[in-house]
Write a structure and sequence with these properties.
Largest sheet: 4 strands, antiparallel
CATH class of one domain: Alpha Beta
Oligomer: single chain
Order of helices and strands: HEHEEHEH
CATH architecture of one domain: 2-Layer Sandwich
Strand order of the largest sheet: 2-3-1-4
Number of helices: 4
Helix content: 25-40%
Structural class: alpha+beta
Length: 87
């Protein structure tokens, strides 16, 4: 029986960045960093490939007015959905 970590490794190629800004940021300023999943002028949720997530987070922190940033794993529901869609 595969562990959750092994399932994540097999089916997920990205992480989720949840970013809150100190002041309004336009979507065009962050679209280049990854796939925008949610957006409002003070908060954004991005999907970023596992290989790029550290560099993207670092770059965003350097150039945008970040109040808080969270690098999160993909939710289990999304992994399960992907498994069922592929079978």
């Amino acid at each position: 029986m595969p562990t959750f970590a092994k399932l994540r490794e097999k089916y997920v190629d990205h992480k989720v960045l949840k970013i809150t800004f100190k002041k309004q940021v336009m979507a065009s300023e962050v679209e280049k960093f990854g796939k925008v999943k949610e957006y409002d002028k003070l908060r954004i949720v991005l999907e970023v490939s596992n290989e790029k997530v550290k560099n993207v987070a670092s770059e965003i922190l350097a150039i945008l007015p970040v109040d808080d940033i969270l690098i999160d794993e993909v939710e289990i529901e999304e992994i399960i959905r992907k498994i069922y869609l592929e079978s």
